[in-house]
Amino acid sequence: MPCPSAVPARLGYAITVNGRSASLHGYGHPPVFRARPGQRLHITVAVMVPGHTTVTALSLGISAHSYGGSPEHPIGVQPILAHSRQPLAPGLHTFGLHWRIPNEQPGTSLLLASVWSTDQADIGQAIATLTLN
């Protein structure tokens, strides 16, 4: 049985939602941010690309429950709040996002999702949970 040639890189994220910050490294549990239905969110996502890795494309957006696909055609991510226009070299890359939460029921959780590609793989992951009060 052949082994995969390379393990996909793991990106690091620092997320700020309306002035409150948290971070996510690798594929750990995403931080939780509390919000209200109808609230306008100002989100900053700083993406750390590790050395010897190039992210060929990246999309950031909102998912109700599932995510995946590729950055050019993300599955389950609507709306797309940011999309890289060029490859991301190793280092820190910052994206500013603005979004108004729809009038969902309190208790609903939405995911801030990152869908990105390298030459080896397409990866989707939740980088934050937005829990509605």
Sequence stretches where pLDDT stays below 50 over 5 or more residues: 1-5
How many E-type strands? 11
Largest beta sheet, briefly? 5 strands, mixed
The assembly state of the depicted protein chains is single chain
The total tally of domains equals 1
Question: The CATH topology, please?
Answer: Immunoglobulin-like
Q: If strands are numbered along the chain, what order do they take across the biggest sheet?
A: 3-11-10-5-8
Question: Quick one: CATH superfamily?
Answer: Immunoglobulins
| Name given to the CATH architecture | Sandwich
CATH class: Mainly Beta
Q: Mean of residue pLDDT?
A: 91
**SS class:** mainly beta
Structural description of this entry:
With 133 residues, this protein is an all-beta fold. The chain has one domain (12-132): Immunoglobulin-like. It has no helices and 11 strands. It has strands at residues 12-17, 20-25, 32-35, 40-49, 57-63, 68-69, 74-75, 80-83, 91-100, 109-117, 122-132. The strands form 3 sheets. Strands 3-11-10-5-8 form a 5-stranded mixed β-sheet, with no helix packed on it. A 4-stranded antiparallel β-sheet has the order 2-1-4-9, with no helix packed on it. A two-stranded antiparallel sheet has the order 6-7. Strand 6 (68-69) and strand 7 (74-75) form a beta hairpin. The protein is globular. The termini are far apart.
